[in-house]
Each structure stands twice: as structure tokens, then as C-alpha cells.
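The pair is quoted verbatim below.
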Amino acid sequence: MSATTTATETARPVRSVLDIDGRALSYLDFGGDGRPLLALHGHLSEGASFTALAGVLGPEWRVIAPDQRGHGDSDRATDYTRAGYVADLRALVDHLGLDRFAVLGHSLGAFNAFHLAAELPHRVEALVNLDTAAAIAPTPASPLSFVLSFPYTAATREDLLAALGPMAPMLGGALRPLPEGGWRLPFHPQDTVTSENAVHGDHWEQWLATDCPALLLRGTSSQVLGADHAADMTARRHRTTHTALDADHFLQLRDPEGVHAAVRSFLAGL
């Protein structure tokens, strides 16, 4: 059994819910006395996607991984802008009493991470960006528009899996039972497209707003972050390290050990 596997097996999070104006924000707290690390997932994902990373980083780091609004066990919202996401995160870190913390994010989560850092520069001590650009050009159709063909709910888990087709292996473990019977996706298809469209645009101001140590981790075959853009992001932002892995945008799925090693090494050097 590898050291990574052993660490992962000891990562036992506690799930809690923060009420924000009557809307539930669910989060996983992997606990311990280590320095806090807020870990933010991307679209089609949830906080539990950081379970293995939490195991690798413990006990030096206490990983806190929310299901961001509209994802996982958190309630849907009417607003999927950066302001809405960041307001949730500010409420969460205030609720937990985190005066200083590091923040890591992938895709949607990375945008939210460096927007949060820009708003709380004196509280964010380090930033990890997993394969996300400082600017995303608008597209005629969302790259995630394929989810609009998925039903949000179904009478049985088997029916929902069948409707997901090739995406069933990726999403099957995250389906949720409904209290009244039936099953649902861990995200609403229309909310997902709305949220993804909202990340398009120029985020350079927020990326450059802080100078805490940062790691920009890129996949060499990324669909989102090209080599030239990553080099520009690294050159223009002080104290930023750029590392490339042989993977596409979904780094944690394609090369989890590479991600774990790079993140752990970066955090150890703070």
C-alpha cells in the first residue's frame, strides 16, 4: 500500500451546513490542527473531490472543501456570478473563524479562489490555481451545454445513470437520493450552463491583485489554459510558480499523484 493510499484512508471529513439567508451551503471539514486550506471544486464536481488531496496534505493542512452553490449537497441559488460565489466563501471563512488561510481551486473554483484572494488579500496567504486562465473568451455555446440533455431527476438511480450515457462513470458516485423518493444530479443542468457562461471574460485584475505565493498548475494538453497564457500569468504576477503536468484540464482525474506532489511541495515551501 502506497503512502498516498494510507493517507487518503485516514481522511475522514465531517459534513456541516452553513445557513446563508435560508440557503444551505454544505461543506466538508477534514479537521486537524494544521493550517487551513480552502479547496474549491469546478463545475460538475463537489467538495468530496478533494478527499485524496486532504489525505496527502494532512496533518500539516486542514482542508475545508465546500460544495459551492448549486453543487453537491448545497442548495441551488438565483445568482451564479463571481459576487455570489465569493459572498458564500466569505461567509464560510468568517463562520469558521479563519483569519489566515490558503485557497486552492480548479476551473470554476480557481476563478472563485483568486477573486476571493483579491477581496481578502490580508487573509489569503497562498493561492493554488489548477489549470485556469486569467481570461476566457466568450463562446457562442457553453462547452458544458451537453448537460442540458440530462434530466435533473429520475424515478430510480438506474434511470438517471442510463440518461447520463458516457458520463455515467464520472457522475454515478455523486448522484443524490431525494427525500420524497427518486434521485437527482449533483448539479442542475441549466444552473451549470448559466454558471459556466458567467466565468467568461477578463479576470486579469483579480489575478494580479495579490502578491501572496501562488502555484499555477497547468495540463500540457489543457483545453482551457495554453502554454503562452500560463507563461504570461506567471511573468506578470509576483511570486508565482508555474508547473506543467502531462494531462488535460481535468488534472485531478488524469494525474492525481502529480497534482498531490506539486501542491504538497508548494505548500511545504511557504
